[in-house]
Amino acid sequence: MMRSYHKREKGLMKIIGMVLLILGAQGAIRMLVDHDDAGLLGWLPGGFAARIAVYVVITIAGIALAGWGARNRT
Asked: Distance (Å, rounded) from C-alpha 53 to C-alpha 38?
């Protein structure tokens, strides 16, 4: 039973990681193309530098979670 739960947990982390990866990368690319289009982080103070940094952190977190979820699904 525990092994089944562990598989579902890793599968969920993989999905969450892919969503974060997509949102972060898409937001960062949008910010690089059009500095005024902040997307989901329009509310964040600090301007371009703060928003692009948060998008990069979201992207890295997505890569880490998706990689962890895909590794050793036994």
From this structure: 12
Per the CB < 8 A criterion, the answer to whether 21 and 59 are in contact is yes
pLDDT at 20: 95
CA distance 62 to 23: 9
CA Rg value for the chain: 15
Residue 24, in any domain of the structure:
yes
Q: What is the residue range of 27's domain?
A: 17-35+46-74
Please, what sign has the CA dihedral across residues 8, 11, 13, 15?
negative
Model pTM? Answer: 0.80
Domains of the chain: total:
1
